[in-house]
Amino acid sequence: MAHRPARTLAEVLDDALRRTPLTPVDVESPATADGEVVEQVRSTLEDAAGAAVPTGRWSAGDPLRLAKGTVSWLLRCPQRALVHDDGGASDDLVAGLAVDAAAKLATLVPHRPPTAETALAYLAATGDTTAADHLADLGDRAARLVDDIAARIDLLAATWPTIEPDWWPRVEEPVRVRLGDGAVQLAGRLDLLLGGPPSARPPVVVEVKGGRWYDGMRADGHFYALLAALRDGVPPRAVVTVVADGTTQVEPVRPAVLVTAAERVAEAMQVAAAIAAGEPPAVHPGSHCVHCPLRSDCAAGRTWRADDPLAG
Ligand code: SF4
After folding, report:
1. Best of 79, 291, 304 to mutate for ligand 1, by most ligand atoms within 8 A of CB?
2. Which residue in 33, 15, 106, 18 sits closest to 254, CA to CA?
3. Is residue 298 lining ligand 1, measured as CB closer than 6 Å?
């Protein structure tokens, strides 16, 4: 029977085990092809850092820090990349936090079914008051948001598998990669990392999103795959993005995925170096302008319209 690609987190984990013997992952000598592609992308990035650092004048003490959002904005609209705006708490943000917390609970405490109540309690227990503060501010409208959160968590829970302890699940896993002797630092925080060193299982990165699926999430997943591969010397078997609208996006991490992710980071370094050297940041309007905090002062963004075929 033809092998059907894995479409759920449970299928990805089964598939990863079926194809990988349960021997300890040896970071010093990963399978040759895996090790080669990791060294290839590391070399691409070191070359890019070597070219960008003299222009950007970054150093280990004052590095260029690139996270997934910075890379995306440097490529999409460099001017927008210069603004650090967390947007404040919103219903969507709080729902996202709660769904993310529910996924962590379902992984770490599988005998307790994830609900809106337990997810919000988990956030409070970890000291994150964003959701509690926002719900308090909503007053009478809070119940409607909690119902919405409950519905999203039900969708997530319907497809979330029991994760065996042998996967060594790590939540909020911080990953940093130094390039150019530390003058460029790639950073991210994986929602969930399963397997990989020090476990005996192949690595799988899981991202949990509280909103609706959009294609930009794929690039975020690829960035995380790149970070994990560079740090551990072993490419993740897959990045699985589980979205609260019921979408599960499975991205097998083939060599081309890592190469493309590295090329995006290399290009972002170039753009950042030019800006650091004093060039005005380019402005690329598009549908992303709608939520941009700079829009009121940005002529290109203000005049962009969804029906403008030359924009975006
Ligand atoms: S409004 Fe649009 S074009 Fe202007 S800075 Fe923001 S994202 Fe860029």
Report:
1. 79
2. 33
3. yes
Ligand 1 centre from 302 Cα, in Å? Answer: 8
Residue 306 lies in a domain: no
Give the per-residue pLDDT at 21: 46
Ligand 1 near 295 CB (within 6 A):
yes
* Residue 255, CA distances (Å) to 9, 52, 218 in order: 21, 24, 15
Largest Cα span, the chain = 60
Q: What is the pTM of this model?
A: 0.88
Question: What residue numbers bound the domain in which 238 lies?
Answer: 9-17+31-85+169-274
DSSP class of residue 288 equals G
CB 80 less than 6 A from any atom of ligand 1: yes
Kindly give the number of the ligand 1 atom that is closest to the alpha carbon of 288. Answer: 7
Residue 78 near ligand 1, beta carbon < 6 Å: no
Task: Give per-residue pLDDT as tens, 168-184.
Answer: 999 999 999 999 999 99
Residues 150 and 126 in one domain: yes
Q: Is the CB of 77 under 6 A from ligand 1?
A: yes
C-alpha of residue 69 to centroid of ligand 1, in Å: 15
Element (H, E) at 249: strand 248-252
pLDDT tens digits for 100-118?
999 999 999 888 889 999 9
Name the domain boundary from 141, 159, 177.
159
Domain count within the chain: 2
Domain C-terminal end among 108, 134, 159: 159
- Rounded-to-5 percentages of helix, strand, coil across the chain: 55, 15, 35
